[in-house]
Write a structure and sequence with these properties.
This protein has three helices and nine strands, in the order E-E-E-E-E-E-H-E-E-H-E-H. The chain is of the alpha+beta class.
Length: 170
Amino acid sequence: FISMAKEVLCHNVLGEEFLVPASKLQFRPSVYGLLIQNGKILLSPQWDGYDFPGGGLKIEEDLEEALRREFWEETGLKVDVGKIIKASTSFYAPRPRSGEESVYWNCVLLHFLVTQTGGELSTANFDEAEKSYLGLATWLDLNKLEGLKFYNHLGSAGSLEIIKQAASQL
């Protein structure tokens, strides 16, 4: 048995890239929802940009359960999960929380269409970390998204493309 040290190219929320030993990666499946209504999409403000509501699965959750939970935590809305729009992977390094060591993720990211079934927009369900960078989810006009900054592995161009794909399937 011969072990070869392998490194992967990771990125962080600022778009910075750096090499990380593969042995330091943690597997993290994640789910995100695209809620489109009346010519608008609901996005989560993060720092000075946006992302789709969603996040990582807990070990005991299935995909739909995790997406319903994450969407509710980040928006206050209850949703039904529809068809998958995009599946992708990313090597990502989230910002470490105060006093914590850096974490590196091998992410599988699944983006789904969702439909609202209840709730009201709220920040009441944010965890302590989310309170430092997330804002109240915002409805944005589909025709006025050019130039928005997105904090995700897709970047702005990829995020706009996935929104276009989702809107075309309604």
